[in-house]
Write a structure and sequence with these properties.
The chain has eight helices and eight strands. By secondary structure, it is an alpha/beta fold. The longest helix is centred in the middle third of the chain and has 20 residues, at about 100-120.
Length: about 260
C-alpha cells in the first residue's frame, strides 16, 4: 500500500509506490504500512527529508562535495547521510557489474534506497556517476510520485580535468585497455538537461556547498545556508541569469 500526503491529509492507495524502474514488488509480498504517517514522523523528529543527487564523470568531485554537504548539514543538526557509489558497491550493489544494464539497475536501486532515507526524514546525499539521463529521470519521477523533494546537482568537471586527477588510476587503466566499460572513455556520459544546480571546478568547494544548502532551504525550509554570501541567488557571484528555469549555473565565482 502506498501513503501519500497532502498537507495534513494522508491518503492510502492499494499498491505501494512502484519501484523507480516502474516494476512491481517481488511476488507474494505486501507493503507493511507504518503506524506513523510521514507528517507525524517528521513533526515528532523536527526534520524533513529529501534527496540531493550528485551526478558527473568519475573523479569529477562528487564524493568530495557530497561528504562536505553531509558534514555541513549534520553540523546544523540536520539528519543527513552520504550514499556514495563506491561504498554501495561494497554492499547492496556488490552483485552488479558495469554493463549498461547493470549501471541502470544500480542507479534505480540506489534511487529506491534514497526514497526510503528521505521518507524517514533524512537528507539522502547521493554521489553516483549515474551516466544515463533516462535512468536519472526515473529516479526523479519516483521521488515525485512519493511526494519527496529531489535536487539534481550536475558536477560538471571537464573530462581532461578528471583524467588529470585520476586518484584511483582508473582512467589510465581504461585508456590503456585494461578496464572496459569506463564512463568517459569507452562508455558515454549523458549530461543532465534539467538539473537544479550545476557546479564547475572554478567554484570553490565552500561556495558549492552553500549553493546546495540554499536550494535545500528553498525546498524544505529545514536547513540554513552557511554564514557566507550565498551564490545561489546572486548573479554577480557566478550564476548565469539566462540559465534554464530549473538549473542554476554556478560558474567562475572565484575569478569574479
Amino acid at each position: 500500500m502506498s501513503m501519500r500526503e497532502n498537507g495534513d491529509n494522508v491518503t492510502v492507495d492499494g499498491s505501494y509506490g512502484s519501484l523507480c524502474d516502474g516494476t512491481s514488488a517481488s511476488p507474494n509480498v505486501r507493503w507493511q504500512q507504518s503506524a506513523l504517517s510521514r507528517a507525524q514522523r517528521w513533526d515528532a523528529l523536527g526534520t524533513r527529508g529529501g534527496t540531493v543527487w550528485l551526478t558527473g564523470l568519475p573523479s569529477s568531485g562528487k564524493s568530495t562535495l557530497g561528504s562536505s554537504i553531509e558534514g555541513a548539514l549534520v553540523e546544523q543538526g540536520v539528519n543527513a547521510y552520504l550514499l556514495d557509489g563506491d561504498n554501495l558497491r561494497h554492499g547492496i550493489s556488490s552483485d552488479l557489474g558495469f554493463s549498461k544494464q547493470d549501471r541502470e539497475r544500480n542507479v534505480l536501486r540506489v534511487g529506491n534506497l534514497a526514497t526510503l532515507f528521505a521518507d524517514s526524514g533524512t537528507i539522502a546525499v547521493v554521489a553516483l556517476v549515474s551516466p544515463f539521463e533516462a535512468t536519472r529521470t526515473q529516479v526523479r519521477e519516483c521521488h515525485a510520485r512519493e511526494g519527496l523533494p529531489f535536487i539534481e546537482v550536475f558536477v560538471n568537471t571537464p573530462l581532461l580535468v578528471c583524467v588529470e586527477r585520476d586518484p584511483k588510476g582508473l582512467y589510465a587503466r581504461a585508456m590503456g585497455g585494461d578496464l572496459d566499460n569506463f564512463t568517459g572513455v569507452d562508455d558515454p556520459y549523458e549530461e543532465p538537461r534539467h538539473a537544479e544546480l550545476e557546479v564547475t571546478p572554478r567554484l570553490g568547494l565552500a561556495q558549492a556547498v552553500d549553493a546546495v544548502l540554499s536550494l535545500l532551504h528553498e525546498q524544505l525550509g529545514a536547513v540554513e545556508a552557511a554564514k557566507r554570501p550565498t551564490v545561489a541567488t546572486h548573479p554577480a557571484n557566478g550564476i548565469i541569469a539566462n540559465a534554464p528555469p530549473r538549473r542554476a549555473r554556478a560558474r567562475d565565482a572565484l575569478t569574479a
